Amino acid sequence: MSQVILLDSGPLGLVTNPKLSVESLACTQWLQLLVSSGSRVIIPEIADYEVRRELLRANKVKGIARLDELNQLLEYLPITTTAMHQAALFWAQARQQGQPTAGDKTIDGDIILVAQAVTIIGADVA
């Protein structure tokens, strides 16, 4: 069974950044290593949204093109109703336990990402 990696907006933003920093190069090499080793690398729609909105705001055309290219190279995971229902459940449970993951009025992308992972993997997520 191959390893499944869902990219969060941090690494996704680094690998789509056309400015080559030490950090972005290291992240790109890490991603290439994952792919070449047979890992299943997935771009969740929520991570794409978080990166894309900033690229659009800043009018970073090259970054948008790199994000679109990466979406063609890797697996893309659209947000489903099942994932959103799971995210709502996780959000409510975290608050009931006194462990909010974001402000009360935010969309809480991290919870949505975890819910997307759970719906495709069907197992515990680390």
Secondary structure blueprint with pairings:
Layout: E1 4-6, H1 9-16, H2 22-36, E2 40-44, H3 45-57, H4 61-73, E3 75-77, H5 81-96, H6 109-121
Parallel strand pairs: 1-2, 2-3
What would you say this structure looks like, in words?
It comes from Nostoc favosum CHAB5714. This is Nuclease. InterPro entries: PIN-like_dom_sf. With 126 residues, the protein is mainly alpha-helical. The chain has two domains: 4-77, 5'-nuclease (Rossmann fold); 81-121, no CATH class. The protein contains six helices and three strands; from the N terminus they run E-H-H-E-H-H-E-H-H. The protein has helices at 9-16, 22-36, 45-57, 61-73, 81-96, 109-121, and strands at residues 4-6, 40-44, 75-77. A three-stranded parallel sheet has the order 1-2-3, sandwiched between helices.
**Beta-sheet strand percentage?**
5-15%
The helicity comes to 55-70%
User: Going by CATH, what is the homologous superfamily of the largest domain?
Assistant: 5'-nuclease
Judged by helices, strands and strand pairing, the structural class is mainly alpha
Uncertain runs are: none
Short description:
The protein contains 6 helices and 3 strands, in the order βααβααβαα. It has helices at residues 9-16, 22-36, 45-57, 61-73, 81-96, 109-121, and strands spanning 4-6, 40-44, 75-77.
